[in-house]
Amino acid sequence: MLEKFRLAKEAEIKALKKLEDQGHSHQPWILLRPSLGLALMHPKSHGIIAEFKRASPSQGDINVDISPLDACLGYARAGASALSILTESRYFKGELNFLVEVAQLGLPLLRKDFIIHPLQVLATRATPASAILLIVRMFPNQKELDQIHGLCLDLDLEPVVEVFDHHDLDRAKEIGARIIQVNHRDLDTLQTDLNRSLELVQHKEAGEIWIGASGISTLAQVQTLKRAGLDALLLGTALMHSHDPGQSLAKLINPKEDHHDH
Q1: What whole-number percentage of the chain has pLDDT above 70?
Q2: Domain residue extents for the chain
Q3: Is the pLDDT of residue 204 over 80?
Q4: Distance between CA atoms of residues 56 and 22, nearest Å
Q5: What would the mean pLDDT of 127-152 be, rounded to a whole number?
Q6: Are 16 and 120 in contact (CB under 8 A)?
Q7: Residue 257 has pLDDT above 80, yes or no
């Protein structure tokens, strides 16, 4: 699966190189980028990153009818601390412009995509994204992972470094990753196992922010993962399957309140 994702990015990288050859440079987004790390660690934060995701390789089309702004407005009202926006087009039907569409909500935005080239990082800096996903396994070469991680920091983009097992975690720690995301989904088999977070979070150190992602759909799961020491949880598919993703999130964040259909 990862190889498929890597191939899917080739056209995008080629296009970015062509622009660069023509003398084009990405103008940095000059408006405020709220910090993802600060938002997740805020004392009043629910620690939920709500994701806008129209489709996925494991699910096919999830919800292609709702606009990014409508879904994310619902998330913001429900109390999401941050938003994750899928920008990968082939498998997830995302667009880079979705980041611009939801920037007005004022929440930190995580660009979720398969980032493997410095030009993709420069292109991200031209959007309102505060943070960018780096999947350790997309970088067979540790030096390249270290360089891209450093470039993100230089450009004031918070790198969210995604790991899947102990080996990935060792590599993330080696580059000094501060925000570590454990993906419960095996990107090769697409199966999910929440125990990955419960096991890996035991290696959490001071100053690190840990996020659990994939396969989280119930209040009990949210509570278990939070109790285990995860600072934040990323929820996407479970929310996007609803005709009102924001309401689904509200039920998870404030289960005691009565949430009527709007």
Answers
A1: 98
A2: 2-24+40-253
A3: yes
A4: 34
A5: 97
A6: yes
A7: no
Residue 118, pLDDT > 50, answer: yes
- What lies within 8 Å, CB to CB, of 191 at 6+ separation is 185
Q: Is the pLDDT of residue 261 over 60?
A: no
The CATH H-level superfamily of 2-24+40-253 is: Aldolase class I (3.20.20.70)
Helix H, strand E, coil C: the string for the chain is: CHHHHHHHCHHHHHHHHHHHHCCCCCCCCCCCCCCHHHHHHCCCCCCEEEEECCEECCCEECCCCCCHHHHHHHHHHHCCCEEEEECCCCCCCCCCHHHHHHHHHCCCEEEECCCCCHHHHHHHHCCCCCEEEEEHHHCCCHHHHHHHHHHHHHCCCEEEEEECCHHHHHHHHHCCCCEEEEECECCCCCCECCHHHHHHHHHCCCCCEEEEECCCCCHHHHHHHHHCCCCEEEECHHHHCCCCHHHHHHHHHCCCCCCCCC
Contact predicate 112/98, CB 8 Å: no
Tell me, what's the pLDDT at 262?
46
Output the pLDDT for position 60: 85
CA dist 35 and 148 (Å) reads 19
Of 180, 176, 140, 139, nearest to 163 (Cα)?
Answer: 180
Q: Let me know how long the chain is.
A: 262
Q: How far apart are CA 229 and CA 201, in angstroms?
A: 7
